[in-house]
Amino acid sequence: MKQAIVARADIGMGEGKLAAQVAHASLSAYEDAGPKPRKAWKGAGQKKVVLKATSESELFELADVAEREGLPHAVVRDAGHTQLDPGTVTALAVGPAEDELVDRVTGDLPLF
Predict the structure, then answer these.
(1) What class of enzyme is it?
(2) Who's near 77: CB < 8 A, 6+ residues apart?
């Protein structure tokens, strides 16, 4: 079981902003999962990987694949209180789900 969080590298988020957006995505996708995968993921140590995307369109393409695969996922839009304009798409989380299923969506992306 794992979760992959894909964050945009093209919008110049500072380290703190990046950390916050990754956390938002992780929690939102966790909440999208059913009780069985949530329990399994928590019991297995909540494995996560943070990956890099280069555009908003790339995040939406990945989200579409996750949707078609029936995987829990969440797209995060920033509230715009600090560094980014309101509504800026910043991150996508896929999973928790079996590693192989998450990799079908995010397996070709580089580490952040």
Answers:
(1) hydrolase
(2) 87, 88, 89, 90
